[in-house]
Specification:
Chain A: This is RAB22A, member RAS oncogene family. The complex is a heterodimer of chains A (194) and B (782). With 194 residues, chain A is an alpha/beta fold. Helix content of chain A is 29%, strand content 23%. A 6-stranded mixed beta sheet of chain A has the order 2-3-1-4-5-6, sandwiched between helices. The chains are: A alpha/beta (194), B mainly alpha (782).
């Protein structure tokens, strides 16, 4: 089974629960054969999607405004970005919109964008209506889910949706990340046809 | 200390002298009459002779009727003055103890085996040390020896042997055993019975039991190999420098180990191979034997690191049982890694993987020895599996590769050697001059050369064959291995020069000045002021000091991969500090890590760190950039950038223009290299292809990637002024690569393009770009 490494970047205001979401996603996948990562800023998890294994390399970013300028370093080369906001903080939703703009301008061209409205367990304190967020996500063709890292709601769904939207590798090409071998690039044979 | 490592131990070892040594087995056989006397020795006689001798002293008594060896009499020690009997079954040509199922083809093998592992015995058999000095020259005298002589053991040795028979950490022996592919089997019953507590106890016994290490032998085959191991190497004739000490040892008058031995050899043992320290009379034989150990892979001078000797592993004896089954060449020898360098580390399976905390200890002091051993305890199962992975040629081919590459680089006239030589000379000639190449340009060229050296290396069929023989590593790991071997021959000679160049370049650019100035502004900031949340902890003063030492070690490494490993250790330690005071369950992500790292950097040598960061950023194998190592390297870079560009009153957006400019440039270069290295073999083809493709508007993902790679190759050394043109090209390409993300993981390059646009790029272009994104999304049917 082909293994594809997918870099996923986490964006969003500080305190919206970016790392908690990833922690939830990764926590049940404990495998003694795989070294755990040293911290929650970078985590990995491999899931099966159809006939492929998707290894998510999840890059967390610091959400503080002062570190904003550093974000391009993190989202470069990402297959997907999960932009997280807090449904109880309107401001975090505005930040999210800025991230979307920035990704459009400077992000990888085919990046899959997922919007996660976190802390949906706190619906009493909700400031961002689900419909508003959903409409916005649709308008930019982004994945949208409301999540709760606390109650493990919709966490896996985010990643499943991302897997679905990652373009399929052409079957014959052997172009998945691990398919090349030193000195014997798989792409070699394909070059002759074009 | 040139050491050849013959497969079966039969090859001459240069420093070992001319006279052929006898194997321990031969030595034992030679004096069999002494320990297995015939008439009139009987059980009573043997008991009388053994009574009061050190534990493990033994005699074999022959059956009076058949005159076959029938009874093994073993002294239980001087204190209890007891002698234990074990029946020897002798059926045809097979010898075995009645209580054991292990069979041996002759008596000497049986004795030798039980001198290494006690199996059913109460203690291991003890073989007098003088036997190791027996050579071809004086072997005739062996047959004259009598049981009394055999048992003659100076009182000092008693202490010695007693120390050695203490149980000690089996952890080490496992690693040791795995070192050259010997298979080790841990008795699972033992684990079930005793858990892993034994791992944490008796750590101090490790050093004394070194002696046993040197003697570990097979009892069933490969005796030629056995012959080369052991203390033979320390005899008077062959060790002119060590004459006085070793002659004493040779005659069996071994001085007692001093009480502080467990700590002293750590210093003494690592340095000298042949010259023993008088304080540690038992260390030299160990070292000597290490040197003569047959490796399954060729080893070059220096491949036996000090750690080899320092962290020798003991032979596990009572109370647990461990069996070894040889596997080809086996004579286990201590790994350069050790209890402090568990196999998982040694495997070097990508710097991406996380680092175990206990591996750090030897860098600083031997003191954490105990602590690390304790930490090992709960990881025993994990470690076992790591060892299991280490078996079967993983370690050996790796060493073999590195050694082979080294040899190739020194082989006059070989293409690789010429290429390495050319690279080193060219690089050393280059410097940083005003108006000339910048530091990062120089590093880019170095990276390109490393990649091309790799291609040259991979052209060697034997290297390909060697790599093909490594079946248990992923491609990425093999990649890493090849990188490391090239670093050793190419990067090592030039690393100091590169540091100087980076220093000059960054000084010219004013980076260091900004770093130092902002350091003054920021250094008083608490972690909260730097953006960290309230509950987050920072390293205490001890940890700060330790991290500063790690930075120093990091600077001393020439291999970017190894530097990254140390960086990961630092990051892990910072994480530990962050969560030290917080309630369990708190998850600290980048929101807190970046401020904490920044806090730590403000207490570090920023100039050196900047140099190392540049070095790593430009020279690290591009395939590693997406992994954990890449993440934390990025974070280090980001943090340094934050410090150097910190301007309290400046709006964040203004900063971002400048920051992005720099980062984008970096990304452009790195993705280029990534692309290059992935397709390095076909680089030229790619470029030509790219030109043709330009108009072809191929929708194939692969073609898109190639195209970019080709164009970027052209522009690698181009002025920055060309960037805008490239940005335009990029835009064009985007429409081409409408399915471009098809192989995200393989061609990250194809996703990095838009960043290369600078703020100056017209809004019209941006509009086009957004349009193209929207269009793509439409294609996906959203």
């Amino acid at each position: 089974m082909a293994l594809r490494e997918l870099k996923v970047c986490l964006l969003g205001d500080t305190g919206v629960g970016k790392s908690s979401i990833v922690w939830r996603f990764v926590e049940d996948s404990f495998d003694p054969n795989i070294n755990p990562t040293i911290g929650a800023s970078f985590m990995t998890k491999t899931v099966q999607y159809q006939n492929e294994l998707h290894k998510f390399l999840i890059w967390d970013t610091a959400g503080q405004e002062r570190f904003r300028a550093l974000a391009p370093m993190y989202y470069r080369g990402s297959a997907a970005a999960i932009i997280v906001y807090d449904i109880t903080k309107e401001e975090s939703f505005q930040t999210l919109k800025n991230w979307v703009k920035e990704l459009r301008q400077h992000g990888p061209p085919n990046i899959v964008v997922a919007i996660a409205g976190n802390k949906c367990d706190l619906s009493d304190a909700r400031e961002v209506p689900e419909k508003d967020a959903k409409d916005y996500a649709d308008s930019i063709h982004a994945i949208f889910v409301e999540t709760s890292a606390k109650n493990a709601i919709n966490i896996n769904e985010v990643f499943i949706e991302i897997s679905k939207r990652i373009p399929v590798v052409e079957a014959a090409g052997g172009t998945s990340g691990k398919a090349f071998k030193l000195g014997r690039q798989a792409s070699e044979s394909r070059r002759t046809c074009c | 200390m040139a050491v050849h490592s013959p497969v079966n131990g039969t090859t001459a070892i240069p420093w070992r002298g001319i006279k052929r040594r006898l194997s321990l087995l031969e030595q034992l056989k030679g004096c069999q009459e002494a320990w297995c006397p015939g008439e009139p020795w009987d059980r009573e006689g043997a008991h009388a002779a053994l009574c009061g001798t050190p534990a493990g002293s033994f005699l074999v008594v022959r059956d009076s009727a058949t005159s076959q060896p029938g009874l093994l009499c073993v002294s239980a020690g001087a204190q209890n003055e007891d002698v234990l009997d074990f029946n020897i079954k002798c059926t045809g040509t097979v010898f075995q103890l009645s209580d054991s199922r292990l069979s041996f083809s002759d008596l000497a093998q049986l004795v030798l085996f039980y001198s290494l592992t006690r199996d059913v015995l109460a203690v291991c058999l003890s073989i007098p040390r003088w036997i190791y000095s027996v050579t071809e020259m004086n072997k005739d005298r062996l047959s004259e020896l009598e049981p009394k002589t055999w048992l003659l053991t100076p009182p000092e040795q008693q202490t010695d042997e007693m120390t050695q028979t203490e149980p000690s950490s089996v952890m080490c022996s496992i690693q040791l055993t795995s070192s050259n592919g010997a298979l080790c089997i841990i008795n699972p019953l033992y684990l079930r019975e005793h858990g892993d507590e034994w791992l944490t106890s008796r750590t101090t016994a490790m050093q004394p039991s070194k002696y046993k290490q040197g003697r570990r032998l097979s009892t069933t085959r490969t005796w030629a190999g056995a012959g080369l191991q052991n203390k033979r190497a320390m005899s008077l004739e062959q060790e002119p420098f060590a004459a006085s000490t070793e002659s004493t040892e040779s005659s069996g008058l071994v001085r007692a180990r001093s009480a502080d031995l467990p700590s002293t050899p750590q210093i003494a043992a690592g340095v000298v191979l042949r010259r023993p320290s008088r304080d540690t009379p038992s260390s030299p034989p160990y070292r000597a034997s290490t040197g003569s150990l047959p490796l399954s892979a060729p080893s070059t001078p220096g491949s036996l690191t000090p750690e080899t000797q320092r962290h020798s592993s003991p032979l596990p004896q009572s109370p647990h049982r461990v069996s070894w089954i040889e596997d080809g060449v086996w004579l286990p020898l201590p790994r350069p890694s050790s209890s402090l360098h568990p196999p998982s580390m040694e495997l070097d399976s990508l710097s991406i993987s996380s680092i175990e905390e206990e591996q750090e200890s030897p860098l600083l002091s031997p003191a954490p020895h105990h602590a690390s051993a304790h930490r090992l305890a709960d990881k025993v199962i994990h470690r076992f599996s790591a060892v299991g992975q280490a078996l079967g040629g993983l370690v050996c081919p790796k060493k073999r590769l590195i050694n082979r590459v080294q040899e190739l680089s020194e082989k006059k006239g070989s293409a690789f050697a010429e290429a390495v030589k050319g690279f080193v000379e060219t690089t050393l000639r280059r410097g940083i001059e005003p108006g000339g190449a910048t530091g990062s340009e120089l590093l880019q060229d170095v990276r390109a050369s490393l990649t091309s050296l790799r291609d040259t290396l991979l052209d060697y069929p034997e290297i390909q064959a060697l790599l093909d023989s490594i079946t248990d590593l992923s491609d990425a790991e093999i990649d890493c291995l090849v990188e490391r071997s090239i670093h050793k021959v190419a990067l090592k000679p030039v690393s100091a020069h590169l540091y100087t160049c980076i220093h000059t370049s960054q000084t010219n650019a004013g980076t260091f000045e900004r770093l130092q100035n902002n350091l003054k502004v920021l250094e008083k900031n608490k972690v909260e002021d730097l953006g960290g949340s309230a509950g987050v902890g920072v390293p205490d003063s001890v940890t700060v000091e330790r991290i500063q030492q790690w930075w120093t070690s990091m600077h001393e490494e020439f291999s970017p991969n190894k530097k990254v490993k140390i960086l990961l250790k630092v990051c892990k330690r910072i994480y530990n500090s962050m969560s030290a005071n917080s309630s369990s369950g708190t998850v600290f992500g980048a929101d807190d890590f970046l401020p904490c790292l920044t806090w730590m950097l403000l207490r570090s040598d920023l100039v050196t760190l900047q140099i190392d960061t540049d070095y790593m950023m430009e020279l690290l194998d591009p395939t590693q950039l997406q992994g954990e190592g890449g993440y934390y390297l990025t974070t280090l870079y980001a943090s340094l950038y934050y410090i150097s560009s910190f301007r309290p009153r400046l709006a964040a957006r203004q900063l971002s223009v400048e920051a992005q400019h720099s980062l984008n440039q970096w990304h452009r270069r790195r993705t280029l290299h990534c692309d290059q290295s992935r397709r390095s073999k076909n680089r030229r083809t790619i470029r030509r292809q790219a030109c043709r493709d330009k108009g072809a508007q191929s929708s194939e993902t692969e073609a898109g990637g190639k195209q970019e790679g080709g164009k970027e190759s052209d522009s690698v050394n181009a002025d920055e002024s060309r960037q805008q043109t490239e940005a335009l090209q990029t835009l064009r390409e985007e429409t081409v690569t409408d399915k471009g993300a098809g192989d995200q993981s393989q061609t990250p390059a194809s996703h990095g393009q838009p960043e290369t646009q600078e703020e100056e790029v017209t809004s019209k272009q941006e509009d086009r770009q957004s349009f193209s994104i929207a269009e793509e999304e439409d294609h996906r049917g959203l």
